[in-house]
Every structure is written in C-alpha cells, then in structure tokens.
Amino acid sequence: MANETQTMTQTMTVSIWRENGDDGRFEKYEVPARENQTVLDVVAYVQQHIDPTLSYRFACRVGMCGSCAMMVNGSPRWTCRTHVSKVVADDQLEVAPLRNLPVIKDLATDMDPFFEKWVAAEAVFHPSKTRHDPMAAITPDDPMRIAASEAIECINCAVCYAACDVVESNPDYFGPAALNRSWSLVNDIRDDGQDVRLAAVGSNGGCHNCHSQQGCVQYCPNELNPTLSIAGLKRETTKALFRRSR
Amino acid sequence: MIRPHRTHPLWFAFLLHRLSGLGLALFLPIHFYMLSLAISAPAHLDGFLRFTDLTIVKLAEYGLVFLLAAHLFGGLRLMALEFLPWSPHQKTMAALAVAFAFLVSTLFFLKAI
Amino acid sequence: MLDLRLYMLQRLTALIMAPLVIGHIAVMIYAVQGGLTVDEILARTQGSVAWFLFYGSFVVAVSIHGAIGLRVISFEWFGLNGRALQLFSWAVFALLFGLGAKAVYAVTFAGVGL
Which residues in chain A land under pLDDT 50? Predict the structure, then answer.
C-alpha cells in the first residue's frame, strides 16, 4: 500500500554509465525524487520503468552481500546502503561501474582480475591436517586469532580495490582485499602455506607497493582495515628476510 | 579538480609526502652543484650566496626546509605505521607531521631574515 | 613494482637519514643567521673527518633513497617500465651520487694540503 505523500512530479536527474563494447558514456535519466531512496532504488527504477537494457548487479539489497558496489559521485559505495539524500550534490547524481575493473556492460564489472589476484596473493587456505587429526586448539583470546578475526569479515565487494590509487597505477598490485585476507591467513596457525604466502606478498605485486593512503580504510563498508593488514605483512616479510639471513 | 574518492586527509598526507620527495629530488642536483663550486669557483659561489640574502630567496628556502621537514616527519609517520603496533590516531599523526614541519621551517625562516 | 629488497633499501636509508636530516636542519638554522659565505662554510667543514663522514653517508643514503623514490613515481605516474625504468633509476642514482660526492669532497678535503 502506497504510504508516501510525495509532492507531484518532483524529479531528479541521474547520470548512469552505459557501455556495451567501446561506447562508454554517461546517459541522463529523469527519476522520481523520493524522500527516502537509495542509489540502488534509483538504478532499479531506471531499469524497470525507463530502460530495460540497463545492466547492473545486486542481490540482498540490505547491505550484506556487497554485490551492488558501484562508483557514486566518484566514490566507491554499496548502492543499497547509500541514501540519495546523503550524496546528491546540486541535484546531481552520477552512477558508474566500480573503478579499476574491466566493464562487462553498463554497471557490471568483470570481477575475474580481482579474484585472480586473490589467489596470486595466496589469500587461500592451505590445510595442514586431515579429518583424522585432532582439531587445532585455538582460544578466542589468542592474539593471532584476534588479529585474524579483525580482518576476516571481507565479503569481496571490491570497494577497496576501486578506491585504491596503487591498484590504478600498478596493474600487478594485488590490492587491499587480497592482501587483507592473506594477512588473516598469516595469523591462522592451522595454515601450512606461510612460506609460499610470504614469498607471494613480498613479490612484485605485493604488499610493499602500498603507500598507506588508506582509501581502503576510508571506504570499506565492513569497516575493515587493509592498511593495517598490509603493514602486518610488511613486518612479517621483513622478519622473514632477517630470519633467512641468519 | 581532485577526484572525489581522494578527498580525505590521509590521501593528502600521501600527496604531500610524494610531492615533497619529488621537489627535494629535483632540488638536490642544483644544491650539490652549487656546493661543489666552493672549491672550483669560490668567488662565484660567494656571489650566489649573497644573492640568497634576498627575501624572495629566503622565502624559497623556507619552502624547501618545509619540504624537507615534512618529508622527514611524514616518513617517520609511515615507518611508525609499518613497524610499530597500529595506532588508531592516523589523522592526528599526519596532522602533527605537518605541524612540526611548519614549526621547524618557520624557525629557520625567522632566523634567516 | 617495489619488491621486498627495494622496499627495505628505501626504509633503511630513510632510517639512516632521519638523524642526518635533523642534524642538517639544525646546522642550517645555526649557519643561516647573519648570512652565508664560502669562508664560513669551509671554516666549519674543511679538513674535517667528522663532516666528511656525516655528509658522505648522507649522500650515499640519499642517492639510493631518491633513486628508488623517483623510480616509483616514474612508474606510477609516468608509466615508465622495463629497461627504460631500470636505466632511469640507475641514472638518478649516478647523478645524485656523482654530484653529491663531488660536493662533499669540495667542502671537506678538496683544498686541503695545497
């Protein structure tokens, strides 16, 4: 049941990136200016009522899955958790696909490079036991477990990846998300791949490229701190260097 | 002008660190060359040093000392970030680095004029 | 493009230079008062092993530090890569070290013993 008492025909202009091949450009759409709406609502309205050919991603639409991440007025955000009233400036709203990723169509980016770097940074668990071995005894107040837990809530939305200028200027750089997950695994005593992992994060595309701009910290919707994790990786690789030279 | 995702304090701290380093790197060859004149052309160097007495040059030196101090204190901030336990006061550290740089360079300038 | 080795060199030279920079700024604040002359500089530094070591280590460190710093900038902001990047990095090092060593020599032991 409609419960909003809107003033008639109040609209706003939203610029949405359209791309299908080599023809990327912004296109403007007039949408109703409701008192309470998110950027995802606006994008959905355009696709449902104006142009059904608009491609975009979303899933949960309640700020849990990270699928709806896009550039909103130049900043990477979850569009389902971005109220239009908070970001609209001079009645302008600009929605574009996430930065630093290839565009498949319109607002949908190709996440393959993001996940390929995830693997390259060894942000993957290397098991050390079988089901027949006793479980690892890890207490919740173990400092390493606490460090791992603080970095563990990443849902791979790529907002930090889009925010990072080093990702933009260095195609080999693994990026904040992959390195953050790698750090959480460095702190996982069950993991058997620390040598391989430290070699990976100390390599050409690794943690030493981070300039601590902390754009990742600024924009992570889960309030994670990849810069902190990357600093941890810098310390671990340094320690490994001195261990090797003994 | 500055892309929206960059308009937060710690990005500006990064920019200051990069530009100060770049400025110093461009300045150093000139600095080294002038000093080497101490032995090959001391009168020439003396003339140049008298030229540096001009207030406009002293202002330029003020800027250079600021760049050096900012790069030093900013660099210490970065190494603390990387090698010491994480501090939740990142913006404060960045602000303090700039503040100390300003203090030191102003001290230099006031002594210089 | 910065790997562990270059990163460590950058941080180590930075650590070495921290006290050298503080010392240099202190000398600057002291020496700039009343104007600078060649005689005043040389009276302080000429024949001095201590100043030779101070500024000598400063030049070595800054040549490495500056070369690596400019390497990163030229890669990230100007897209320099591969062989050109290597040449550029070594050229910066050579320029800074060459000019710097000449300057250190000029103010310490160049005119001594004549």
Answer: 1
Per-residue pLDDT at C52 exceeds 90:
yes
Give the integer Cα–Cα distance in Å for A16 and A182: 35
CB contact under 8 A, B81 and A225: no
Residue ranges of domains in chain B: 9-21+53-112
- Are A116 and A85 in a shared domain? no
- C52 is a domain residue: yes
Q: Which of A109, A134, A152 is the last residue of a domain?
A: A109
Sign of CA dihedral C40, C46, C50, C53: positive
Question: Could you say which residues from 30 to 49 on chain B have a Cβ atom under 8 Å away from some Cβ of chain C?
Answer: 31-33, 35-40, 42, 45-46, 49
CB pairs under 8 A between A and B: 48
DSSP state of A47: I
Nearest one of B63, B106, B34 to C99, comparing CA atoms: B34
**Are residues A118 and A90 located together in one domain of the fold?**
no
**Closest to A116 in 3D by CA, of A166, A184, A181, A178:** A178
Quickly state the pLDDT bin for C114 (edges 50, 70, 90).
very low
Give the strand order in the sheet containing A75-78: A25-32, A11-18, A92-96, A69-72, A75-78
Say which residues have a Cβ less than 8 Å from residue C12's Cβ, sequence separation at least 6: none
Does the predicted model carry a pTM greater than 0.80? Answer: yes
Contact between C7 and A234 using a beta-carbon 8 Å cutoff: yes
CB distance B64 to C21 below 8 Å:
no
Which of these three, A76, A109, A142, is where a domain ends?
A109
* Per-residue model confidence as pLDDT tens digits over A137-173: 999 999 999 999 999 999 999 999 999 999 999 999 9
Separation of alpha carbons A102 and A86, rounded Å:
28
Q: With an 8 Å Cβ cutoff, is B64 touching chain C? A: no
Nearest CB neighbour to C100, from listed B32, B49, B112: B32
- Decide if A169 touches B, using CB distance below 8 A: no
Residue C112 lies in a domain: no
Q: What is the ipTM of this complex?
A: 0.92
**From the CA of C39, how many Å to the nearest CA of chain B?**
9
pLDDT mean over C11-29 = 96
Instruction: Mark yes or no for CB contact C3/A234 under 8 Å.
Output: no
Query: What is the mean pLDDT of the segment spanning C3-24?
Result: 96
